[in-house]
Design goal:
449 residues; 17 strands; globular; binds iron/sulfur cluster
Length: 449
Amino acid sequence: MNERDSEQVAHSLIERGYERAANELEADVVLLNTCSVRDMADQKALGKMRMLGRMANERPHVIFGFLGCMAQARGDSLLKNLPHVDLVVGTQRFHRVADYVEDLRQRKRTRAMDDPRFSIVDIEEETGSQSTIREQQLLPKQATAFVSIMQGCNMRCTFCIVPQTRGAERSRTIEEIVDEVRVLVSRDVKEVTLLGQIVNLYGRHEFEKLDNKSPFVQLLEAVHEIGGLERVRFTSPHPIGFSDDLIDAYRRLPKLACHLHLPVQSGSNKILKAMHRTYTAEKYIDLVQRVRDARRGIAITTDIIVGFPGETEADFQQTRALVEQVRFDNAFVFRYSARRGTPAAEMAEQIDESVKEQRNHELLEVVNQLAVQINQRLVGQTFEVLCEKPSKTNPFRLMGRTRTNKIVLFEGSDELLGKLVDVRIERATGFSLYGTPVGAAAPITAIAI
Ligand code: SF4
């Protein structure tokens, strides 16, 4: 979601004649779009801004700003120890950033900011802000795009800072979203990922159920209708609200990608309750089974927190057992990170960092072993891959994804960028598949230099 918000801000600046700089040393405006979900993300952004401060003395005309969740949570306190920061803009005001940048540049040009230092802080809430993330600055041959369909979350999981930083749930209309996707498809995008903090509960406060279908399923159907669109993904859903109409959508809507990222967070019912996740491990497992029944071969990934306050070794072993039973294709495992102002941060029985580290390590091993086993079975098979971009590590390779969201690396020319290519898998690790394109249209080892 941050990536998508950053794109919107970039678009609004490019519209006014700005250009992307190759790096911050060449930029006249440096904006850090921040994440607050873990303390490490906060610290990284602060560290980066401190480092940029050294540059501020040599290049006083440069505008420095914090955007996003940390800006929302900390507001003007961010200016205290970072005097070179000019701008702090929260999560509902991204669309004002370009105006503020212009204002700040004008003031710097006329030296109106010399003393006292002038800065702009805007962390106001704004009705309708969910509809302001709607334009995209696509790169040449860009085949995939994020589409923000809602903002905020009312779930109040006890570890999570998102309801504070992103506000209450607010959804865009189906018409608005479909219009955005149509424009993307007309510019050759083939896959969209619908984004929301609790995406499957899209529209529950604004729109009615129709024919027993939730607003989210109605939206999926409307997006699915768009000719030229090949794949639809969404992230992230909550097991609560993952109702039968959505499971049935996997049977009816072939463009719906064959991958579901479904955060479980813990395999212990005691910890799930303390997290306020409002489902049990048994219900989660049953839901996964029903999704697998609806769509054969679907890949399932998840998020897990280890070391939540009060998590005993027995609780942790229940999480491990759930991972082994579900056999996730992959999982993001996080050590619990206390966030100021959340109920879990105040809970007794905080877990020692060394215990969190050991559980994190143990669970990652299980996850990685399963991922290797699952991916090894794909060797020898051919999959349709949407070719996204050149590989980061090897300029002779391209990178794409299967419908199951597996990363595939293969040799091929730039002509394949943005296209669907059948690739035969020859080798697999837990993270990536390696293969060769098959079929007449695919050059086998053409190399782009
Ligand atoms: S559902 Fe997700 S975004 Fe909402 S409070 Fe829970 S973890 Fe945070």
